[in-house]
Input
Amino acid sequence: MPYANPEIKPFFSIVIPTRDRAFLLKDLIDSIVSQDFDDFEIIVADNSKEHLSQDLLVNYKNETRLHNVKTGNLNMADNWEIAINSASGKYLLLFSDKMILKQGSLKFLKEYINQNNPDCVTWNIDTYIDHNNIYFDKATIEKDKIISSDDLFRDILKADMFSFDCSAFHCNSAVSIEIINKIKSKTGRVCMQLNPDYTMSYQILMYISKIHKISKSLSVLRYQDFDSGYGNGSSFMKKTSQAKLFMND
Output
């Protein structure tokens, strides 16, 4: 399903790599298409084995801003890469299917970018626990700030976990497509095999001089319960057997 007018590039390319989680995907797509802003495209790279995600996407067949890219049998990094390579907009937003975009976020983000012209802007993420029906607001910084990429890299290499909140990861960042293209021209791809999220973040840092960190939370990350999330991230933090298996793979 092509963008409404292929001659006009959308401002945001929102790419959503997903696999076998249609129940999460619906809430994310709905949170995007209901925004008070429409200058975007959505690219769903569906790597599912089951048919539920494709069945869901049929319901959006009249949504001309949505591209349904069916992949299948790919590892995570390759599916992310296909999603990114399909982007045609000015800024890339890579969203995990386990998140929801807050209302008004795209309009706010576009206004901030127009005023500041950043290569990369990041924001805070709230948390929602599905099974417990509990919502946590992420403590916001007092004001917007600009962080040197060199300083941020040093903090990350010191294993300062708070520094990761400022880096460009899925669910919390918008990155200029010009920066994405520079990365691809040098290394061939944005997401490497071991961990696409972290390798993408590190590569972005190496190609920009600073990150704009805004003081608002624009998205919500969902967890199943207090003990487990919808992915490998929480497992890594707890150093569980799941994390060890992921690293071995």
Remarks:
- The first helix runs from residue 22 to 33.
- Confidence is low (pLDDT under 50) at residues 1-5, 234-238.
- DSSP finds nine helices and ten strands in the chain.
- The radius of gyration is 17 Å.
